[in-house]
Amino acid sequence: MHEKGLLIVLSGPSGVGKGTVRKEIFSQPNTAFQYSISMTTRAPREGEVDGIDYFFRKREEFEEMIEQGKLLEYAEFVGNYYGTPVDYVKETLERGKDVFLEIEVQGARQVREKFPDGLFIFLMPPSLTELKNRIVTRGTETDDVIQNRLQAAKEEIEMMNLYDYVVENDQVERACEKINAIVIAEHCRRERVESRYKKMLEVE
Amino acid sequence: MHEKGLLIVLSGPSGVGKGTVRKEIFSQPNTAFQYSISMTTRAPREGEVDGIDYFFRKREEFEEMIEQGKLLEYAEFVGNYYGTPVDYVKETLERGKDVFLEIEVQGARQVREKFPDGLFIFLMPPSLTELKNRIVTRGTETDDVIQNRLQAAKEEIEMMNLYDYVVENDQVERACEKINAIVIAEHCRRERVESRYKKMLEVE
Protein backbone atom coordinates (compact mmCIF):
# COMPACT_ATOMS: atom_id res chain seq x y z
CA MET A 1 0.00 0.00 0.00
CA HIS A 2 1.31 3.43 -0.84
CA GLU A 3 0.15 6.95 -0.33
CA LYS A 4 -1.32 8.77 -3.31
CA GLY A 5 0.76 11.64 -4.66
CA LEU A 6 -0.05 15.27 -4.04
CA LEU A 7 -1.18 17.59 -6.78
CA ILE A 8 0.87 20.77 -6.41
CA VAL A 9 -0.40 23.81 -8.28
CA LEU A 10 1.85 26.84 -8.61
CA SER A 11 0.12 29.93 -9.94
CA GLY A 12 0.04 33.69 -9.52
CA PRO A 13 -0.33 36.97 -11.42
CA SER A 14 1.24 37.05 -14.87
CA GLY A 15 4.80 38.29 -14.84
CA VAL A 16 5.46 37.16 -11.27
CA GLY A 17 8.07 34.61 -12.37
CA LYS A 18 6.21 31.27 -12.13
CA GLY A 19 8.21 29.76 -14.99
CA THR A 20 11.55 30.81 -13.49
CA VAL A 21 10.65 29.30 -10.11
CA ARG A 22 9.41 26.09 -11.75
CA LYS A 23 12.62 25.74 -13.79
CA GLU A 24 14.73 26.30 -10.68
CA ILE A 25 12.80 23.60 -8.78
CA PHE A 26 13.24 21.09 -11.58
CA SER A 27 16.93 21.91 -11.96
CA GLN A 28 17.50 20.60 -8.42
CA PRO A 29 18.78 17.03 -8.56
CA ASN A 30 16.69 15.79 -5.62
CA THR A 31 13.32 17.07 -6.79
CA ALA A 32 10.78 14.34 -6.18
CA PHE A 33 7.93 15.91 -8.11
CA GLN A 34 6.79 14.99 -11.55
CA TYR A 35 6.33 17.97 -13.81
CA SER A 36 3.12 17.85 -15.76
CA ILE A 37 3.87 18.91 -19.31
CA SER A 38 1.30 21.26 -20.80
CA MET A 39 -0.29 20.91 -24.19
CA THR A 40 -0.45 23.85 -26.59
CA THR A 41 -1.49 24.76 -30.10
CA ARG A 42 1.17 27.41 -30.48
CA ALA A 43 4.19 26.68 -32.68
CA PRO A 44 7.38 25.46 -30.99
CA ARG A 45 9.95 28.20 -30.42
CA GLU A 46 13.60 27.79 -31.26
CA GLY A 47 15.00 24.92 -29.18
CA GLU A 48 11.64 23.75 -27.77
CA VAL A 49 11.07 20.00 -27.95
CA ASP A 50 7.71 18.21 -28.21
CA GLY A 51 7.07 16.14 -25.07
CA ILE A 52 9.63 18.08 -23.03
CA ASP A 53 8.70 21.73 -23.15
CA TYR A 54 5.14 21.17 -24.32
CA PHE A 55 3.04 18.69 -26.18
CA PHE A 56 2.57 20.57 -29.44
CA ARG A 57 -0.80 19.74 -30.99
CA LYS A 58 -2.97 20.92 -33.83
CA ARG A 59 -5.98 23.06 -33.01
CA GLU A 60 -8.43 20.31 -34.02
CA GLU A 61 -6.72 17.77 -31.78
CA PHE A 62 -6.81 20.18 -28.86
CA GLU A 63 -10.49 20.93 -29.36
CA GLU A 64 -11.26 17.22 -29.54
CA MET A 65 -9.58 16.77 -26.14
CA ILE A 66 -11.65 19.61 -24.70
CA GLU A 67 -14.83 17.96 -25.97
CA GLN A 68 -13.82 14.58 -24.54
CA GLY A 69 -13.12 16.11 -21.12
CA LYS A 70 -9.49 15.09 -21.33
CA LEU A 71 -8.09 18.38 -20.05
CA LEU A 72 -7.78 19.18 -16.39
CA GLU A 73 -7.73 22.87 -17.28
CA TYR A 74 -7.25 24.93 -20.39
CA ALA A 75 -7.30 28.51 -21.55
CA GLU A 76 -6.80 30.48 -24.73
CA PHE A 77 -4.15 33.21 -24.91
CA VAL A 78 -3.58 35.36 -27.98
CA GLY A 79 -5.20 32.82 -30.26
CA ASN A 80 -3.53 29.71 -28.90
CA TYR A 81 -4.77 27.03 -26.51
CA TYR A 82 -2.80 25.93 -23.46
CA GLY A 83 -3.95 23.08 -21.23
CA THR A 84 -3.11 20.14 -18.95
CA PRO A 85 -3.93 16.57 -20.07
CA VAL A 86 -5.79 14.94 -17.17
CA ASP A 87 -4.85 11.27 -17.71
CA TYR A 88 -1.15 11.81 -17.12
CA VAL A 89 -1.85 13.72 -13.90
CA LYS A 90 -4.20 11.04 -12.54
CA GLU A 91 -1.92 8.13 -13.39
CA THR A 92 1.10 9.80 -11.80
CA LEU A 93 -0.81 10.58 -8.61
CA GLU A 94 -2.03 6.98 -8.42
CA ARG A 95 1.56 5.79 -8.64
CA GLY A 96 2.21 7.80 -5.45
CA LYS A 97 4.23 10.55 -7.09
CA ASP A 98 3.61 14.25 -6.52
CA VAL A 99 2.61 16.14 -9.66
CA PHE A 100 3.62 19.75 -10.18
CA LEU A 101 1.57 22.12 -12.34
CA GLU A 102 2.63 25.66 -13.18
CA ILE A 103 -0.40 27.38 -14.64
CA GLU A 104 -2.27 30.65 -14.99
CA VAL A 105 -4.75 31.85 -12.39
CA GLN A 106 -7.80 30.92 -14.50
CA GLY A 107 -6.46 27.40 -14.92
CA ALA A 108 -5.83 27.06 -11.19
CA ARG A 109 -9.48 27.86 -10.58
CA GLN A 110 -10.55 25.02 -12.89
CA VAL A 111 -8.18 22.59 -11.16
CA ARG A 112 -9.45 23.55 -7.71
CA GLU A 113 -12.94 22.46 -8.73
CA LYS A 114 -11.71 19.03 -9.86
CA PHE A 115 -9.03 18.47 -7.20
CA PRO A 116 -10.23 20.30 -4.09
CA ASP A 117 -7.53 18.66 -1.93
CA GLY A 118 -4.69 19.71 -4.20
CA LEU A 119 -2.00 21.96 -2.82
CA PHE A 120 -2.46 25.46 -4.21
CA ILE A 121 0.47 27.84 -3.96
CA PHE A 122 0.17 31.50 -4.94
CA LEU A 123 3.37 33.13 -6.10
CA MET A 124 3.26 36.75 -5.01
CA PRO A 125 5.27 39.66 -6.39
CA PRO A 126 7.57 40.99 -3.69
CA SER A 127 6.48 44.50 -4.50
CA LEU A 128 3.73 44.60 -1.89
CA THR A 129 6.24 44.87 0.91
CA GLU A 130 8.27 47.34 -1.15
CA LEU A 131 5.12 49.28 -1.88
CA LYS A 132 4.47 49.57 1.83
CA ASN A 133 7.97 50.96 2.35
CA ARG A 134 7.47 53.51 -0.40
CA ILE A 135 4.20 54.67 1.08
CA VAL A 136 5.80 55.02 4.47
CA THR A 137 8.87 56.90 3.22
CA ARG A 138 6.80 59.02 0.75
CA GLY A 139 8.01 61.53 -1.74
CA THR A 140 9.93 59.04 -3.86
CA GLU A 141 7.02 58.22 -6.18
CA THR A 142 4.22 60.18 -7.73
CA ASP A 143 0.77 59.62 -6.28
CA ASP A 144 -0.39 58.04 -9.55
CA VAL A 145 2.25 55.35 -9.51
CA ILE A 146 1.43 54.50 -5.92
CA GLN A 147 -2.31 54.46 -6.60
CA ASN A 148 -1.86 52.09 -9.55
CA ARG A 149 0.32 49.73 -7.58
CA LEU A 150 -2.09 49.86 -4.65
CA GLN A 151 -4.93 48.89 -6.95
CA ALA A 152 -2.90 46.03 -8.42
CA ALA A 153 -1.91 44.86 -4.94
CA LYS A 154 -5.55 44.78 -3.86
CA GLU A 155 -6.44 42.66 -6.87
CA GLU A 156 -3.57 40.29 -6.11
CA ILE A 157 -4.79 39.89 -2.54
CA GLU A 158 -8.29 39.12 -3.84
CA MET A 159 -6.81 36.37 -6.06
CA MET A 160 -5.17 34.66 -3.07
CA ASN A 161 -8.51 33.47 -1.75
CA LEU A 162 -8.42 30.21 -3.64
CA TYR A 163 -4.96 29.24 -2.44
CA ASP A 164 -3.58 27.35 0.54
CA TYR A 165 -0.20 29.04 0.63
CA VAL A 166 1.35 32.31 -0.46
CA VAL A 167 5.04 32.51 -1.36
CA GLU A 168 6.61 35.87 -2.01
CA ASN A 169 8.95 35.72 -4.99
CA ASP A 170 11.61 38.02 -3.57
CA GLN A 171 14.44 35.64 -4.48
CA VAL A 172 14.01 32.60 -6.70
CA GLU A 173 16.05 30.29 -4.44
CA ARG A 174 14.13 31.31 -1.34
CA ALA A 175 10.81 30.85 -3.10
CA CYS A 176 11.89 27.33 -4.16
CA GLU A 177 12.97 26.45 -0.63
CA LYS A 178 9.59 27.52 0.66
CA ILE A 179 7.73 25.52 -1.97
CA ASN A 180 9.78 22.41 -1.12
CA ALA A 181 9.07 22.95 2.59
CA ILE A 182 5.35 23.29 1.91
CA VAL A 183 5.28 19.95 0.10
CA ILE A 184 7.20 18.18 2.90
CA ALA A 185 4.85 19.69 5.48
CA GLU A 186 1.72 18.70 3.58
CA HIS A 187 2.88 15.09 3.55
CA CYS A 188 2.99 15.29 7.37
CA ARG A 189 -0.51 16.77 7.80
CA ARG A 190 -2.40 14.77 10.36
CA GLU A 191 -5.45 14.13 8.17
CA ARG A 192 -3.30 12.46 5.51
CA VAL A 193 -1.10 10.46 7.88
CA GLU A 194 -3.92 9.38 10.17
CA SER A 195 -6.01 7.82 7.45
CA ARG A 196 -2.96 5.96 6.15
CA TYR A 197 -2.17 4.60 9.61
CA LYS A 198 -5.77 3.61 10.19
CA LYS A 199 -5.76 1.67 6.95
CA MET A 200 -2.55 -0.07 8.03
CA LEU A 201 -4.22 -1.36 11.17
CA GLU A 202 -7.28 -2.60 9.32
CA VAL A 203 -5.13 -5.49 8.06
CA GLU A 204 -5.60 -7.35 11.36
CA MET B 1 4.60 46.27 11.94
CA HIS B 2 5.73 42.68 12.30
CA GLU B 3 4.09 39.30 12.25
CA LYS B 4 3.48 37.60 15.59
CA GLY B 5 5.55 34.49 16.23
CA LEU B 6 4.19 30.97 15.97
CA LEU B 7 3.78 28.74 18.98
CA ILE B 8 5.24 25.36 18.01
CA VAL B 9 4.32 22.45 20.26
CA LEU B 10 6.21 19.18 19.89
CA SER B 11 4.68 16.28 21.75
CA GLY B 12 4.05 12.56 21.46
CA PRO B 13 3.97 9.31 23.43
CA SER B 14 6.57 8.99 26.19
CA GLY B 15 9.76 7.37 25.01
CA VAL B 16 9.33 8.50 21.40
CA GLY B 17 12.42 10.70 21.56
CA LYS B 18 10.96 14.21 21.87
CA GLY B 19 13.94 15.45 23.90
CA THR B 20 16.46 14.09 21.40
CA VAL B 21 14.70 15.74 18.48
CA ARG B 22 14.40 19.03 20.37
CA LYS B 23 18.12 19.00 21.23
CA GLU B 24 19.03 18.28 17.62
CA ILE B 25 16.90 21.19 16.42
CA PHE B 26 18.49 23.59 18.86
CA SER B 27 21.99 22.36 18.03
CA GLN B 28 21.53 23.66 14.50
CA PRO B 29 23.18 27.07 14.11
CA ASN B 30 20.38 28.58 12.01
CA THR B 31 17.46 27.67 14.25
CA ALA B 32 15.19 30.68 14.45
CA PHE B 33 12.94 29.38 17.22
CA GLN B 34 13.09 30.35 20.82
CA TYR B 35 13.07 27.38 23.16
CA SER B 36 10.71 27.84 26.06
CA ILE B 37 12.47 26.64 29.18
CA SER B 38 10.29 24.55 31.47
CA MET B 39 9.94 25.00 35.20
CA THR B 40 10.25 22.05 37.56
CA THR B 41 10.32 21.19 41.25
CA ARG B 42 12.67 18.27 40.77
CA ALA B 43 16.29 18.61 41.85
CA PRO B 44 18.86 19.49 39.18
CA ARG B 45 20.77 16.52 37.85
CA GLU B 46 24.54 16.53 37.46
CA GLY B 47 25.47 19.24 34.99
CA GLU B 48 22.00 20.81 34.72
CA VAL B 49 21.93 24.58 35.01
CA ASP B 50 19.08 26.73 36.34
CA GLY B 51 17.69 28.93 33.55
CA ILE B 52 19.19 26.76 30.81
CA ASP B 53 17.93 23.22 31.27
CA TYR B 54 15.04 24.17 33.53
CA PHE B 55 13.96 26.81 35.93
CA PHE B 56 14.38 24.93 39.20
CA ARG B 57 11.82 26.09 41.77
CA LYS B 58 10.58 25.09 45.21
CA ARG B 59 7.24 23.29 45.43
CA GLU B 60 5.57 26.28 47.13
CA GLU B 61 6.72 28.67 44.43
CA PHE B 62 5.41 26.36 41.72
CA GLU B 63 2.02 26.00 43.42
CA GLU B 64 1.80 29.77 43.79
CA MET B 65 2.30 30.10 40.02
CA ILE B 66 -0.42 27.54 39.38
CA GLU B 67 -2.82 29.51 41.58
CA GLN B 68 -1.96 32.77 39.85
CA GLY B 69 -2.57 31.23 36.41
CA LYS B 70 1.01 31.86 35.39
CA LEU B 71 1.55 28.46 33.80
CA LEU B 72 0.53 27.70 30.24
CA GLU B 73 0.46 24.01 31.13
CA TYR B 74 1.71 21.84 33.95
CA ALA B 75 1.66 18.25 35.14
CA GLU B 76 2.94 16.17 38.01
CA PHE B 77 5.21 13.17 37.36
CA VAL B 78 6.50 10.91 40.12
CA GLY B 79 6.01 13.58 42.74
CA ASN B 80 7.46 16.52 40.85
CA TYR B 81 5.82 19.36 38.96
CA TYR B 82 6.79 20.31 35.42
CA GLY B 83 5.30 23.31 33.64
CA THR B 84 5.66 26.18 31.15
CA PRO B 85 5.66 29.80 32.40
CA VAL B 86 3.15 31.67 30.26
CA ASP B 87 4.61 35.21 30.39
CA TYR B 88 7.82 34.27 28.64
CA VAL B 89 5.89 32.52 25.85
CA LYS B 90 3.54 35.46 25.29
CA GLU B 91 6.29 38.09 25.31
CA THR B 92 8.42 36.13 22.85
CA LEU B 93 5.49 35.63 20.45
CA GLU B 94 4.69 39.34 20.63
CA ARG B 95 8.27 40.13 19.65
CA GLY B 96 7.60 38.13 16.45
CA LYS B 97 9.73 35.14 17.38
CA ASP B 98 8.55 31.54 17.11
CA VAL B 99 8.44 29.71 20.44
CA PHE B 100 9.16 26.00 20.65
CA LEU B 101 7.67 23.83 23.41
CA GLU B 102 8.56 20.19 23.91
CA ILE B 103 6.01 18.78 26.31
CA GLU B 104 4.00 15.72 27.32
CA VAL B 105 0.68 14.85 25.70
CA GLN B 106 -1.39 16.06 28.67
CA GLY B 107 0.41 19.40 28.57
CA ALA B 108 -0.18 19.75 24.84
CA ARG B 109 -3.91 19.36 25.46
CA GLN B 110 -3.85 22.26 27.94
CA VAL B 111 -1.91 24.43 25.49
CA ARG B 112 -4.33 23.70 22.65
CA GLU B 113 -7.16 25.15 24.73
CA LYS B 114 -5.25 28.38 25.35
CA PHE B 115 -3.56 28.70 21.94
CA PRO B 116 -5.90 27.07 19.42
CA ASP B 117 -3.90 28.44 16.47
CA GLY B 118 -0.60 27.05 17.71
CA LEU B 119 1.25 24.56 15.57
CA PHE B 120 0.88 21.10 17.10
CA ILE B 121 3.28 18.41 15.95
CA PHE B 122 2.91 14.80 17.05
CA LEU B 123 6.13 12.80 17.11
CA MET B 124 5.27 9.24 16.21
CA PRO B 125 7.30 6.11 16.92
CA PRO B 126 8.43 4.56 13.63
CA SER B 127 7.28 1.18 14.88
CA LEU B 128 3.84 1.43 13.30
CA THR B 129 5.25 0.90 9.84
CA GLU B 130 7.56 -1.79 11.19
CA LEU B 131 4.63 -3.38 12.97
CA LYS B 132 2.75 -3.56 9.73
CA ASN B 133 5.70 -5.32 8.09
CA ARG B 134 5.86 -7.83 10.93
CA ILE B 135 2.18 -8.61 10.67
CA VAL B 136 2.51 -9.10 6.95
CA THR B 137 5.60 -11.32 7.17
CA ARG B 138 4.23 -13.20 10.24
CA GLY B 139 5.91 -15.86 12.30
CA THR B 140 8.69 -13.62 13.54
CA GLU B 141 6.84 -12.51 16.68
CA THR B 142 4.53 -14.18 19.15
CA ASP B 143 0.87 -13.21 18.90
CA ASP B 144 1.05 -11.54 22.31
CA VAL B 145 3.79 -9.14 21.31
CA ILE B 146 1.94 -8.19 18.17
CA GLN B 147 -1.34 -7.74 20.03
CA ASN B 148 0.29 -5.46 22.60
CA ARG B 149 1.94 -3.36 19.94
CA LEU B 150 -1.28 -3.18 17.97
CA GLN B 151 -3.10 -1.93 21.04
CA ALA B 152 -0.40 0.68 21.69
CA ALA B 153 -0.49 1.74 18.05
CA LYS B 154 -4.24 2.25 18.21
CA GLU B 155 -3.86 4.42 21.29
CA GLU B 156 -1.16 6.48 19.56
CA ILE B 157 -3.43 7.04 16.58
CA GLU B 158 -6.21 8.17 18.93
CA MET B 159 -3.81 10.69 20.49
CA MET B 160 -3.05 12.26 17.09
CA ASN B 161 -6.48 13.83 16.91
CA LEU B 162 -5.42 17.03 18.61
CA TYR B 163 -2.48 17.65 16.32
CA ASP B 164 -1.95 19.43 13.01
CA TYR B 165 1.02 17.39 11.86
CA VAL B 166 2.48 13.94 12.45
CA VAL B 167 6.21 13.32 12.10
CA GLU B 168 7.53 9.79 12.27
CA ASN B 169 10.73 9.64 14.31
CA ASP B 170 12.50 7.07 12.15
CA GLN B 171 15.71 9.13 12.03
CA VAL B 172 16.36 12.16 14.21
CA GLU B 173 17.80 14.26 11.37
CA ARG B 174 14.88 13.50 9.09
CA ALA B 175 12.39 14.30 11.82
CA CYS B 176 14.12 17.66 12.41
CA GLU B 177 14.10 18.48 8.71
CA LYS B 178 10.37 17.81 8.61
CA ILE B 179 9.71 19.97 11.65
CA ASN B 180 11.70 22.84 10.13
CA ALA B 181 9.76 22.45 6.87
CA ILE B 182 6.45 22.51 8.73
CA VAL B 183 7.33 25.81 10.40
CA ILE B 184 8.43 27.39 7.09
CA ALA B 185 5.21 26.19 5.45
CA GLU B 186 3.00 27.49 8.24
CA HIS B 187 4.50 30.95 7.83
CA CYS B 188 3.33 30.81 4.19
CA ARG B 189 -0.26 29.73 4.95
CA ARG B 190 -2.65 31.98 3.12
CA GLU B 191 -4.73 32.90 6.18
CA ARG B 192 -1.64 34.27 7.96
CA VAL B 193 -0.15 36.07 4.96
CA GLU B 194 -3.43 37.48 3.71
CA SER B 195 -4.32 39.22 6.94
CA ARG B 196 -0.81 40.69 7.16
CA TYR B 197 -1.06 42.02 3.60
CA LYS B 198 -4.52 43.41 4.22
CA LYS B 199 -3.23 45.27 7.26
CA MET B 200 -0.39 46.68 5.13
CA LEU B 201 -2.84 48.20 2.70
CA GLU B 202 -4.97 49.73 5.44
CA VAL B 203 -2.21 52.32 5.86
CA GLU B 204 -3.53 54.26 2.88
Number of strands of chain A: 9
**What oligomeric state do the depicted chains represent?**
homodimer
CATH superfamily of the domain at 7-36 and 98-202 in chain A, by name, is P-loop containing nucleotide triphosphate hydrolases
Helix content of chain A: 40-55%
Judging from the principal axes of the Cα atoms, what is the shape of chain A? globular
End-to-end CA span of chain A: 15 Å
Binding site for ATP (chains A, B): 12-19
Function (chains A, B): Essential for recycling GMP and indirectly, cGMP.
GO molecular function (chains A, B): ATP binding; GMP kinase activity
Catalytic activity (chains A, B): GMP + ATP = GDP + ADP
Quickly describe the structure.
Chain A has 204 residues and is an alpha/beta fold. Chain A has helices spanning 18-27, 59-67, 86-94, 105-114, 127-137, 143-159, 172-187, 190-202, and strands at 7-11, 34-35, 39-40, 55-56, 71-77, 80-85, 99-102, 119-124, 165-168. Chain A has a five-stranded parallel beta sheet, with helices on both faces.
